[in-house]
């Protein structure tokens, strides 16, 4: 399944446009796409610009689909869970986005290996959880703990903590009906 339009619109909104914060180890980004990611994407996706500053929304959506949505297995996940995993994959890396889900499933006693891969065992564990919204809440909590740990262990990252937590708050509102996209 392709990246749903409303999920793409959501991620473009939270990622915004071009930013070049000298304290961000990822460097310059446009729509959340780093220069390094763009350079990597150019190897497999045709007609992308060389400079991240020149990236269009449509090109960013193509990168999101092929480097995050599909590799994170979001196309195999139910609504809301797919958005939460996808947002985590975009913000923290594909494997880490999936690990948040696996850690959350383990809170429900699923006994999964936290390997960052959506496989048969993760999908089976996911199908055993009856309350998708409760699972989303646990995933968001896992992410909050991750961000707090990152800010605590790397003082230069503290400047980004408020933005990360605001991102989680927006995702929470989306998952719990105050701005639900699907």
Description:
It is a single chain. The chain has 182 residues and is mainly alpha-helical. The chain folds into two domains: 70 residues, no CATH class; 106 residues, Chitosanase, subunit A, domain 1 (Up-down Bundle), CATH 1.20.141. Helix content is 57%, strand content 3%. A three-stranded antiparallel beta sheet has the order 1-2-3. α4 crosses α5. The longest helix has 22 residues. The protein is globular and about 45 Å long. The two termini are 16 Å apart. 34% of the residues are buried. The mean pLDDT is 93.
Describe the structure in brief.
The chain has helices spanning 5-15, 35-41, 57-69, 81-92, 94-107, 120-128, 132-153, 161-175; strands spanning 18-19, 29-30, 33-34. The chain has 182 residues and is mainly alpha-helical.
Characteristics:
mainly alpha; Chitosanase, subunit A, domain 1; 2 domains; three-stranded antiparallel sheet
Q: What is the number of domains? A: 2
Spatial strand order of the main sheet:
1-2-3
Shape: globular
User: Helix and strand string, N-terminal first?
Assistant: HEEEHHHHHHH
| Global mean pLDDT | 93
**Extended strand count:** 3
Q: The CATH topology of the largest domain is what? A: Chitosanase, subunit A, domain 1
CATH architecture of the largest domain: Up-down Bundle
Q: Give the low-pLDDT segments.
A: none
- What percent strand? under 5%
Major sheet: 3 strands, antiparallel
Number of helices: 8
Give Rg in angstroms.
16 Å
What class, by secondary structure content?
mainly alpha
CATH superfamily of the largest domain: Chitosanase, subunit A, domain 1
Distance between the termini: 16 Å
């Amino acid at each position: 399944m392709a990246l749903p339009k409303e999920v793409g619109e959501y991620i473009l909104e939270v990622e915004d446009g071009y930013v070049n914060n000298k304290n961000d180890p990822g460097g310059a980004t446009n729509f959340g796409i780093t220069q390094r990611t763009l350079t990597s994407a150019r190897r497999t996706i045709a007609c992308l610009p060389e400079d991240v500053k020149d990236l269009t929304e449509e090109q960013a959506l193509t990168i999101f689909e092929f480097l995050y949505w599909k590799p994170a297995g979001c196309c195999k996940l139910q609504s809301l869970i797919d958005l939460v995993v996808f947002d985590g994959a975009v913000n923290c890396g594909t494997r880490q986005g999936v690990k948040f889900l696996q850690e959350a499933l383990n809170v429900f006693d699923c006994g999964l290996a936290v390997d960052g891969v959506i496989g048969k065992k993760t999908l089976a564990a996911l199908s055993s959880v009856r309350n998708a919204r409760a699972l989303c809440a646990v995933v968001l909590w896992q992410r909050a703990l991750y961000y707090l740990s990152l800010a605590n262990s790397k003082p230069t990252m503290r400047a980004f903590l408020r933005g990360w937590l605001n991102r989680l708050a927006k995702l929470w509102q989306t998952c719990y009906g105050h701005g639900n996209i699907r």
